[in-house]
Design a protein that fits this description.
This protein is of the alpha/beta class. The chain has a domain at 25-248: TIM Barrel (Alpha-Beta Barrel), CATH 3.20.20. It is built from eleven helices and twelve strands. Helix 2 crosses helix 3 and helix 7 packs across helix 8. It is globular, with a radius of gyration of 20 Å. It starts with 14 loop residues before the first helix and ends with a helix. 46% of the residues are buried. The mean pLDDT is 97. It binds ligand PBG and zinc ion.
């Protein structure tokens, strides 16, 4: 049957009709809130390029987590800003490290909240790269993949001890998931899950995050380890390898420019799939809304619904708290 018997507008007439046939329903249970944790007490340092996001001291982060938990947000992902940086990012595996302190403090306040830690080195190294730097054949500085894996093992074991439920490596090292699984299992942390940033693109949209996490590289860029935005087939290979190495969940990052990748990964591997709606994607909406050019709430809900429609089961977004409020209102 075709027009005039078929009229698709019939089912769009009222909000209740639209609600009834709505295919994708964004839920607060889909969301993960990213948090930036630093030293000190009572601190909430705003981040200019990310309105309403702040670097928080451990006590404030724990307070924030209690609010998120009360709003029904199931999980947070923690990023640390250390007091001191060095060539290896050794604070990442210190039991007194900022993430380790935050994990213990948050767990005291929140019984159920899922605690995810971002696992990388760029916030902790004085050069701002995601691991150990070595010199290549031409005398150029390069990220030493295998030496960095050793440090990664130490980092995840330390996070597990401090209470992480899920570790999320974001360094795009080859073999990172295998190294982490082995490291955790060897120490008995068989129930700590791995959310791999499997397909992480070398994106311009991480700009505001690097202000927030104070992690901009001191020289060069991350193009030699993060993926070329033009490559889809390679993204599937990245995911396939991480699945083989034991990833429990995989992530595509950023989200909006990579909806095609999210869909392909979900269809091909059918495992819990996360997408990171990154700092630049957040900042764009916030900036346009501040100018009165876009409606923040409608844009945030439309975008995150689209990310879910593309195939994401889990969405990491700086809008998590706002969305939790909007959905419950
Ligand atoms: C660090 C890391 C980055 C993000 C998450 N973990 C940035 C980077 O690669 O510089 C970006 C998150 C965002 O932009 O919101 N490896
Ligand atoms: Zn990094």
């Amino acid at each position: 049957m075709a027009f005039p018997e078929t009229r698709l507008r019939r089912m769009r007439r009222t909000e209740q009709m639209r609600r009834m046939v709505r295919q994708t329903r964004l839920a607060v249970g889909d969301l993960v809130a990213p948090l930036f944790v630093r030293g000190g007490t009572g601190l909430r340092n705003p981040i200019a390029s990310m309105p309403e996001v702040a670097q928080m001291s451990v006590d404030c982060a724990a307070e924030e987590c209690a609010e998120l938990e009360a709003l029904g947000v199931p999980a947070v992902i923690l990023f640390g800003i250390p007091d001191t940086k060095d060539a290896h990012g050794s604070e990442t595996w210190s039991d007194k490290g900022i993430i380790q302190q935050a994990l213990r403090a948050i767990r005291e306040r929140c019984r159920e909240l899922v605690l995810i830690t971002d696992v990388c080195f760029c916030e902790y190294t004085d050069h701002g790269h995601c691991g150990v730097i070595a010199t290549d054949r031409r005398g150029q500085p390069v990220l030493d993949n295998d030496a960095s894996l050793e440090n990664l093992r130490k980092q995840v074991v330390s996070h597990a001890k401090a209470g992480a439920d899920i570790v999320a490596p974001s360094c795009m090292l080859d073999g990172m998931v295998k190294a982490i699984r082995e490291g955790l299992d060897y120490e008995g942390w068989t129930d700590v899950a791995i959310l791999s940033y499997a397909a992480k693109f070398a994106s311009a949209y991480y700009g505001p995050f690097r202000d927030a996490a104070e992690s901009a590289p001191a020289f060069g860029d991350r193009a030699a380890y993060q993926m070329d935005p033009a490559n889809a087939a390679e993204a599937l290979r990245e995911v396939e390898l991480d699945v083989q190495e034991g990833a429990d969940m995989v992530m595509i990052k950023p989200a909006v420019n990579y909806l095609d990748i999210i869909r392909q990964v979900k269809d091909r591997f059918n495992l819990p799939t996360a997408a990171y709606h990154v700092s630049g994607e957040y900042a764009m909406v916030k900036a346009a809304a501040a100018n009165g050019w876009l409606d923040e709430r409608r844009c945030a809900l439309e975008t995150t619904t689209a990310i879910k429609r593309a195939g994401a089961d889990v969405i990491l977004t700086y809008f998590a708290k706002s969305i939790a409020r909007w959905l419950s209102a």
